[in-house]
Amino acid sequence: MRSEKYTDKLASSIRETESVACIGLDPVPERLPPSILDNEDSLDQQILEFCKEVVEVTTPYAAAFKINTAFFEQLGSRGWEMMEELVEYTPEDKIIILDAKRGDIGNTAKSYARALFDAVGADAVTVNPLMGLETLEPFVEEEWQGIYALALTSNPGADQFFKRSLSDGGTLSTAIAHALVDFQQDPLVEGSVGLVVGATQAEDAKAVLDIAGNAPLLIPGLGAQGGDVESWVQLLKTYQGYPLFNSSRAILYAHEDDDTGLNWQQATEMAALTFKNSLQAITTHVIASAT
């Protein structure tokens, strides 16, 4: 059984790597590098080899890796085995987030938590809080567990629900943020309660961040989705928690746009280094001020 508090491991990984970068592992078979596709391995082995090499070359630049479970679940039982192998392959001092967006009641939620934390080996998982906060309880029963609850997603469809105005003048996003802050204070909650806030939603994110305080943040949407780093430098000036900025496609498929003659591993490594460096102002602030 793991004993280190989630936020302590998160802080340590950020400090040791001097990075708030999170690399997303969302392997699309047809976009794998030709050198991977041309070998005679089965598709599952090609995907696993690709992901392991991505982890290998980007580890120096990333505090965390986010495995999107859907890309592995579609492969059936072998996909679950691949996630377990990938978690085991990743250095122990890195944060492993399983992006599963689970949310359900009672024993169903408990079973999801066991599958993701115990069977696969996640440090944190993404969850959907819209069925109520009791659905999150099984995911934060231990100090070493972390969750990132959807609060303001990066996709355009966030306008339909998360940004919808409520009668109190707030939005669904701010209501979720208030509820999560209260949830973290529940004496039965041992783990760490974080929020998913899309990088493309900088204008609306301020109201959520003002409520969330110093809760851990998972911020997807930089890179291919077009989120602006400079906006987040300004937004996080008074923040004293531990954010992770995720990039997936811009790093995984850097080889598709590379014309420098680098092999795909080198193109991926350079993309990860560039991503880390783009976040340097935020990283410096986080390391200096986080408590």
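Next protein, fold it too.
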Amino acid sequence: MRKEFDFLGAVSVPADAYYGVFTVRAMKNFQLSGLRAKPVFIRALGIVKKSAAEANKELGALDAKKANAIISAADEVIAGKLDAHFPLDAYHAGAGTPFNMNANEVIANRAIEMLGGKLGDYSLINPNNDVNMAQSSNDVIPTTIRVACVLESKKLQEELKMLQAALNKKGASFAKIIKTGRTHMQDAVPITMQQEFDAWANAIEGDLPALHASIERLRILGIGGTAIGTGINTHPKFRKMVIERIAANSNEKFVACKDPIELTNNMNAFLEFSSSMRSVAVTLARIANDLKLLSSGPKTAIGELYLPEVEPGSSIMPGKINPSIPEAVEMAGYQVIANDTAVLLACKGGQLQLNTNTPLIAQNLLFSIELLSNTAKMFREMCIDGIRADEERCKELLYSGLILATALNPYFGYQKMSELVKEALARKMTIYEIILEKKLLTKKQLDELLLPENLVKPQEKKKL
């Protein structure tokens, strides 16, 4: 062990740890969830620290020798080489000060080591004075969340686009299958299976613009505002310069916000992003539920689709197969919705010049990105790509039911068709059979009116 000191007193730190006294205190204080910060968050934190050191070096505020060591140490943080030295619980003190100081200490001690010094000898490089120069937890952590979300959301957008494409492709393979459409969980009117799959694909496509727009808003940074956005303790050119360096080091576009004071206390950009992911979660969960219904039975319920058999469905019922992938998609969707609620409350919790709930925001946003990305990938690979249709079952349900009555409304009127439907139900007959029995149409006329291709798109009324 080694001894480190702060204004509260002495603390024992593991001799080989790159973190220091602040991190040790936080580890003891906050043992809440057993969860750690996501790796992309640590990477983004390294990017922010490296960029600040580069800006301070160029401005002449930070000695070049110190700056170069800090930059090299931050590069190792970015590369994930020092992840073991970020041990803090994801939920801890407000505004993420422990996260910020953990990074300051790790980078300082690794830089000290690079310069040939001993860990904990902060006379060489100081976590607060050097690594944290021109920064505050209050602008570093929100900036880190924004950078992390922008970096991680690329995978999410790609996975959603591939899932959309998979649904379109699968639907195209079912283009000739006419089946029963349902509303209120009851038989309604005919639909093609392609139309059904295309509607799901289009729902995902419809969620993407809002998701993209919310990510674009995250590219607006408040770094350089320090404690409350006024920029105290920074060089006048620091803010512009550090954002340019963040953009270069992340290979992403970032710009300065109009009002750093506003961005220090207003977290609604995170809420907008979270809400857009909630919409995606709702869409995926709804599609998953539809697939469960359409594959239900398969002998005693709808049974129009066969989902891939990924695992046995029961420990007691032989041969049973469950819709395991859609079930997992539903649960993941509900978790993202719950995460969004946490983000909403955290964003609402800002007071005066600061929102102290940023650790909660960070954990839930990054969890949702990861969960949705993995869910979209699993849904596509383990379910959508392998779906098979039972065309005979679709035909059986379509023609044995009563939904064809709607197609005949223009010829007999709603009231008359309602009476025929009621009689058909009572006598256990099909609409087709009762129309012919009552000689309301000839078989040729009825067959022409009920051609499958005429049932799923607008048609002019034909002369009988």
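About the second fold: The longest strand covers residues 186-192.
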